[in-house]
Amino acid sequence: MDDPVAMWEVLSDRLDNATTKLSHTQVLLKFTPSRPSPDETVIQSFTKLISFRKKFIGTTKIITDDAMKTHIFTTLSNSYKMTIEILEQRIPAPTAPQCMDAIREYAKRTTLTKEIGDASTGAALSSSGGNCCRGGRGGGRGGG
């Protein structure tokens, strides 16, 4: 191979994902302690988690669906507690992407509710996890 750019691309593909034991370990060492930062949106947090998972594409190693869900459920703030409890009770159990979709939807509704409150009254409505989940889709009326 004579092209240095092509050579680096090949090396990057082989070494940047989790094809080596060292890379695999490094990815897991970053994934396991990762937590959403206070200024990070749910979408940004999930994008970061998905990027860890994608590093294993093309290898025999994976971050399992259960590991991903456990990580999501144990690292999100308490404002998502009710949504997480609902997801944990569903039968059949939702996949990690389905959980992320439900949490994104909840976050979107919560943000919209707060923005409507700010616009109409000048004060934000409560955006606690318990109040926003009741009655709507995925709320206390049988899931969804």
Task: Describe the protein.
The protein has 144 residues and is an all-alpha fold. The protein has two domains: 1-61, no CATH class; 64-144, no CATH class. The protein has helices at 4-16, 21-31, 42-54, 65-75, 81-89, 96-121, 129-133. The longest helix has 26 residues, at 96-121. Mean pLDDT is 79; it is low at 124-144.
Q: Which overall shape is indicated by the principal axes computed on the Cα atoms?
A: elongated
What percent strand? under 5%
Topology, number of strands: 0
How many separate helices?
7
SSE order in H/E notation?
Answer: HHHHHHH
Distance between the termini: 55 Å
**Taking Cα atoms only, what radius of gyration do you get, to the nearest Å?**
19 Å
Low-confidence stretches: 124-144
Major sheet characteristics: none
Structural class: mainly alpha
Q: What is this entry, summarized?
A:
This protein is an all-alpha fold. It folds into two domains: 1-61, no CATH class; 64-144, no CATH class.
Secondary structure elements and their pairing?
Layout (H helix, E strand, L loop, with lengths): L3 H13 L4 H11 L10 H13 L10 H11 L5 H9 L6 H26 L7 H5 L11
